[in-house]
Amino acid sequence: MDKNFRCPNIKRTGAALSIRVNPVTQKIQVTTVESNGDWFPGTRILESCSVVDSENWVCATESKSAPEAAFKIYVKSTVGMFRGHLYTIVEGGAPPDYYSSSIGGWRLKLFEWGAIDRVLAQKLE
Q1: CA angle, residues 37, 89, 16, in degrees to nearest 5
Q2: What is the Cα–Cα distance from 11 to 115, expressed in whole angstroms?
C-alpha cells in the first residue's frame, strides 16, 4: 500500500459500482452497475452511517445470536470509503474463534446468511 492507501499490484478488476452519498440523511446508496461476480445486482441502501463527505464515510451493521444460544456469537460488518477507496471488514465469532476479515461481495452475503462459514468465504475470495 502506498502513501495514498492505494495497492500498487492489482490482483483483478473489481465490480463497477455507483455510490450516492446523502450527508443529510447519513445514508449511502450502492448500485451494482457491472458485477465481476463479487456483487449482487441491484441497489442496496446502507444505514447507520457516519458521513464526512462523498469520499470519506463508514456504515456498520451488527447482529448477535439469540439470547438462548449456548455461545454468544457477534458479527459486525463495516462498509466504508476512505480517501475514495471502498472497503469491507467483517468481524465476530465466539471466543476463542474471534476473527477479522475482508470478505466481500456475494461471499459476504452468504456468510452473513449463514450459508457458508468464514474459512470457506475466505478461500473463495
Answers
A1: 35
A2: 26
The CA-atom distances, in angstroms, between 115 and each of 14, 19, 106, 118, 123 are: 23, 27, 11, 10, 14
Per DSSP, helices labelled H in 35-112 are: 105-112
- Phi–psi pair at 19, nearest 5 degrees: -120, 120
Report the length, in residues, of the chain.
125
Locate 45 and state its grid cell: 441502501
C-alpha distances (whole Å) from 122 to each of 1, 11, 28, 50, 119 are: 21, 15, 26, 28, 5
Is the overall model pTM greater than 0.70, yes or no? no
- pLDDT tens across 78-101, in order? 889 988 888 887 777 665 565 566
Nearest-angstrom CA–CA distance, 75 and 42: 24
Helix H segments across the chain?
105-112, 118-124
CB neighbours of 68 closer than 8 A, spacing ≥ 6?
none
Q: Which of 122, 116, 79 is nearest to 99 (CA)?
A: 122
